[in-house]
Write a structure and sequence with these properties.
The complex is a heterodimer of chains A (about 140) and B (about 100).
Chain A lengths: L1 E3 L1 E4 L5 E10 L5 E8 L7 E2 L1 H7 L5 E8 L2 E8 L2 E4 L7 E4 L2 E4 L8 E3 L1 H4 L3 E5 L4 E5 L11
Parallel strand pairs in A: 4-11, 5-10
Antiparallel strand pairs in A: 1-13, 2-3, 3-4, 3-8, 6-7, 7-10, 8-9, 12-13
Chain B lengths: L8 E4 L3 H23 L1 H4 L7 E5 L2 E5 L2 H11 L7 E4 L12
Antiparallel strand pairs in B: 2-3, 2-4
The chains are: A mainly beta (about 140), B alpha+beta (about 100).
Chain lengths: ~140, ~100
């Protein structure tokens, strides 16, 4: 299982590792969304924009999420994240997931350890590689 | 005491129709993403504090994500590869870890 990502140039001029995923809405359709691959984040968190688009009722109104900036207002939502494999069908990862409610809290959604911990994570900017590797796929570190 | 995190369930999609739909949506999203990256230098400085939605390889801008999404959907209803991106008011180093 290999799920490829990209290096995404953000609004601050910094390039960050991103996995493009699809999220299940209240109406049963899927919306596309970039997820920052954040190996330091404990949880996958949807941005406020994604939350608004999903139109899902919150399971918990005041989920607590903390970071450098302190605790940010957030909710818990029951949804699924769909990831596209390089070959073969997509996989879904069923939540619940947290979502922030303040637009300034996140410029894009964050893929945290709850998802990335299911895979080996490769974030290689010199090599221009971002991917999640699991099951029958392996990675190898080689010296020239 | 740390909060207990919800357990996530991973499943492989086997329905052929769902596979084709997901892959087609992914391809459309990739085209929109490439378009945004190609125009990033002109778009980002101009729309600080705004919500962007990219659809049909075109830009839609609003003060709220709902409005940006609605504009993009009205112009390109066929493009389910549209996506939102918020341009922070300030360009500064960000630490995301929660």
């Amino acid at each position: 299982m290999r799920i490829n990502g990209t290096w995404f140039l953000g609004a601050d001029g910094i390039t960050r590792p991103v996995i493009w995923a699809q999220i299940l809405t209240h109406h049963g359709s899927w919306i596309a969304a970039p997820f920052l691959v954040d190996t330091g984040a404990d949880r996958t968190v949807c941005s406020a924009g994604v939350l608004a688009t999903l139109q899902l009722p919150p399971l918990v109104a005041q989920e607590r999420l903390g970071g450098i900036g302190g605790i940010v207002p957030s909710v818990l939502i029951d949804t699924q994240v769909r990831l596209l494999q390089e070959a073969g069908g997509p996989i879904t990862v069923r939540g619940p997931y947290a979502a922030v409610t303040a637009p300034d809290a996140l410029d894009m959604s964050v893929m945290g350890w709850d998802i990335t911990g299911l895979f080996a994570v490769i974030v290689d900017q010199p090599g221009q590689v971002v991917c999640l590797v699991g099951q029958r796929h392996r990675y190898r570190i080689a010296a020239d | 005491m740390p909060e207990q995190h919800p357990t996530l369930i991973l499943e492989e999609v086997t329905d052929p129709t769902a596979i084709v739909q997901a892959q087609a949506q992914g391809a459309r999203c990739a085209r929109n993403m490439a378009w945004l990256q190609a125009h990033a230098a002109e778009i980002y400085p101009r729309y600080r504090g705004k919500h962007l939605c990219i659809a049909g390889e075109a830009l839609f801008v609003a003060d709220t994500p709902e409005d940006a999404w609605a504009l993009a959907t009205a112009a390109h209803p066929e493009d389910d590869g549209r996506f939102l991106y918020y341009v922070p008011r300030e360009a500064l180093a960000r630490i995301y870890a929660d």
